[in-house]
Amino acid sequence: MRYACYGLIFVAALALQSAGPPGLVLFGVQPQLVLLIALLSGMIEGPVSGAIFGFMGGLFQDLLTGRFIGLGAVATMCAALGLGLAGRRLYKENLLVRFFTILGGTLAAQLLYLLGKAAFGLAIPWSPLIWKTLLGVGLLNGLISIVLFRPLMFLNRRIIYWDELLKRTG
Predict the structure, then answer these.
(1) Of 13, 38, 48, nearest to 113 (Cα)?
(2) CA 137 to CA 121: how far, in whole Å?
(3) Which of 72, 97, 157, 163 yields a CA-CA distance of 20 to 30 A from 7?
(4) CATH for 2-169, among 1.10.1760, 1.10.10, 2.30.140, 1.20.1260?
């Protein structure tokens, strides 16, 4: 049940990210909601669940876009795994820690994706515009994570409760 609930969250995030209202664009950048949910699940659930959710969310996103299928999944999985491992050592309830870890995870995932595209032969112009866009997406994801962390933490507790209840009652 837990995986089905997180799957619905990923589908909703993917729908908002790809076909959402134009109001989701702030300062010329659009937040990477699937990546953000994967990173937050890595912080909340731990590295293994973060890697699973990151891979599945990235794969959903890759299948929807139809480009470099699997590359986004691997990049999102690696970032969520790294953030899940870092979340064991860090005090994730602190707003600044959460902001900077999500910022770093977003930057790492985006850089891995761009390096993977370059490895497959796509010419990436490493101009200041690319770096400004990466930083803008990271900052926007960090700001959104401050708002989304508590509701996802509450939802995670509810999902675990209902999952255990269903397992015990059959």
Answers:
(1) 38
(2) 24
(3) 97
(4) 1.10.1760
